Amino acid sequence: MGNAYLKYHKTHLTLALLFLFVFSLAFTQNPFVSAKSHSLIFNESNAYNHISSQLDFGFRVPGTTAHNNCADWIVDQMQTYADEVFVHDFSIQKESQPNYYCQNILGKINTNKTKIVILGAHWDSRNVAEKDTYNQSQPIPGANDGGSGVAVLIELSRVLSLYKDNLDCQIWFLFLDAEDQGYSLGMYGLEFWDWCEGSMKFVDDIEEFYDSKSEKINSFILLDMVGGTDLIFTRETNSDLILHNRIFREGRKLGYSSAFPLNPTEISVIDDHIAFKDYGIPAVDLIIDFMNGEWNYHHTHSDNLDNIDSESLKIIGQTIESYMKSHYTGSFPLWGYFIIIFSSGILVIIPLVYLYKRIKK
Q: Is the CB of residue 55 less than 8 Å from the CB of residue 145?
């Protein structure tokens, strides 16, 4: 009777501990979940259509009607998906040149969270085609250089707004103006402008948009030229290496090893992430080798829809979606680890004790 009673309770204790172990995993984030286990809903067709919509406005050069109309469109998109939308107005005036009105556009989700991740892209298009063999003084379409990053951000705002209750961070969708008008091959985009004017202006005023005492910006992830054919990302040397490696690992987990190679080409780029890096925020520039790589339409009239690949949009969109879900889906509580360790320990000890008693007999 005693042995049967002990065996009965030993069995039920084991089952109870097993239940406790499974329960702890079900109600806490499993830190060992692979990227492929996520249900990814990024839609590359939506992103492609967002590029087409931008090109329909015309050349998004500061000072033009197309530029103003595109800004209104981005604001409308953000008002659909974001909890809060801000327009950061600024102007640029160089020497004897006109005063240009510009806008950075910011959409936020999960504004009650104290940790912030910024996803950024520039939305202006270049005013000259200095790398082309004809009409060099004319604007370029900017389908990839500007348009692709904007399109992916808008689709990510839809995707992550649906998932926001599971995220333990704020996400900022930041559309930066006045990035692409600097000096190259003897030509300015707009006379005497620097590169990345908009990001420098935004960082100058960044504390207007968050409380630096109670909130912390965790990272800045820049998407630049992410939708072209033959997508292969570089190791941009001004970027935070830890952040770079995490995103590349995420892409490779999803099977996108060609786009996120183990030994990527190294390049150094002046881009919108620099201002955030200088402010002290870990920043990464996800960008192709536009100087020597396979996609060679940079700052030419051929930066159009013909040289956009929906598969590239899917690769970068799913990778960032998966990265956010892998790294910012709740936080694994300390008590969860204790339960797992304790339950695992008991489940190991019970059969050892049982085996020991059998040997003694």
A: no
